[in-house]
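Class, look over these structure tokens:
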Amino acid sequence: MTPFQTVTAIAVPFDEPNVDTNQLCPTRFNKVPRGPRFADILFHDRRFTADGAKRPEFILNREPYSKAGIIVADRNFGGGSSRETAVYALTAFGIRAVIASSFGDIFTNNSFKNGLLPVILPPATCAGLRDQLRAQVGATLTVDLEKQIVRDVEGVEHRFEVHALRKRSLLGGLDDVALTRSFAAPLSEFETEYRRQFPWLYGAGEAANPLS
């Protein structure tokens, strides 16, 4: 998983509430193997016509937003079904962070597991950021995970909260498997000591079993 530390990127204002996972990744694409193709799956039915042509009115098809790395959304982004492919589509497109006033719970978990940072800020702050981005098309925002701040177009910093373990995982680029492996040394020490204290549990030292 790609580590997330500080990201400065073009940010796209997305004013709609309730952008659900079926919009992010339509159902028929759920079985597509994860890979670069997911960049075109993101918002597929809204970005493309039936014959595959790009819809020029859709914001991610317009420059410079086709190179956006941050989305500033409204409330309940990523609600709906539990499909992890919605996050695959965002990250394949190049989105590293989504800022919104609320998120779907399962979408939030899937995001952290796949290197996408969901940032919760108050509704008024999100609306203010979108106003800035509309006023300065192509402007960048900075999301600093270590400091837990979003720096807006005017340089004002907005603090956000994030669970300590999720922060550690993103900073280190650790998925669930890698995070578990990071505890290998203390787990090994515990198991060694446990075997020493209770050898009969492992088929050795039966005579020493105080319960026999």
Remarks:
- The chain has two domains: 6-174, 182-212.
- DSSP finds nine helices and seven strands in the chain.
